[in-house]
Amino acid sequence: MKPKVLVSWSTGKDSAWCLHLLRQSGAWEVVGLVTTVNVVFGRVSMHGVREELLERQAQVAGLSLWKVPLPYPCPNEAYESAMRELIARAKQAGVSHFAFGDLFLQDIRDYRERQLAGTGIAPLFPLWGVDTRQLVGEMIASGVQAVVSCVDSRQIPAALVGHALDETFLQALPPTADPCGENGEYHTFCTAGPMFSSPLRVQRGEVVERDGFVYIDLF
């Protein structure tokens, strides 16, 4: 029997590639996608993607969606309480591992490991330490398609929001930016790739700016 694993799902390319690698290895039974959702706005936390698009991703990934509802604003105590409830549910379902698409930020990895310590659920980091320029190139070559849904305009040009994830976009990034956006330079919404049974069609809507972050609404 393969160990059961949940995937931390942001709707972006890194979590989608994490899912792909786990399935490709044949060593795991992926049982669901875990996503924090802002219950006030009905959107994915941080990325700002509409909840209905998140649900469509889960459908074409062929997996159940484990939503973690969060208030707005969300103090850290509320977040950690919600995650404790998730872990308790996961243990009851026989889950033994929780996979994350983190690439190289040690403080984030340390935090995740602390949160899972002693719970009986172990963290997995399938993408950890991979060269990020090589990684994003492999994603694109494999057929991954994504829309840049959010940019930090303090790190990369605001005009790149809404751009397709492709070589043109990567070449437009300033040399200080990580190619995968691991330092928060940008976030994506994944619309196609080997982890999905069929592509998603999205339309680009209004662009808004909040606290230095520029978001594009996707339908």
Helical residues, percent: 25-40%
Mean pLDDT: 96
In CATH, the architecture of the largest domain is 3-Layer(aba) Sandwich
Mass-distribution shape? globular
Fourth CATH level, the homologous superfamily of the largest domain? HUPs
Q: What does the main sheet amount to?
A: 6 strands, mixed
Radius of gyration, CA atoms, in whole angstroms: 17 Å
Tally of separate domains:
2
Q: Please, how many helices?
A: 6
Unreliable spans = none
Protein model, in words:
It is a single chain. The chain has helices at residues 13-25, 51-61, 76-92, 106-116, 132-142, 167-172; strands at residues 4-8, 29-38, 43-44, 64-70, 95-99, 122-124, 145-152, 186-192, 204-210, 213-218. The chain is α/β, with parallel strands linked by helices and 219 residues long. It folds into two domains: 4-124, HUPs (Rossmann fold); 132-218, no CATH class. Strands 1, 2, 3, 4, 5 and 6 form a six-stranded mixed beta sheet that branches. Strands 8-7-10-9 form a four-stranded antiparallel beta sheet, with no helix packed on it. β1 (4-8), α1 (13-25) and β2 form a beta-alpha-beta unit. The protein is globular, with a radius of gyration of 17 Å.
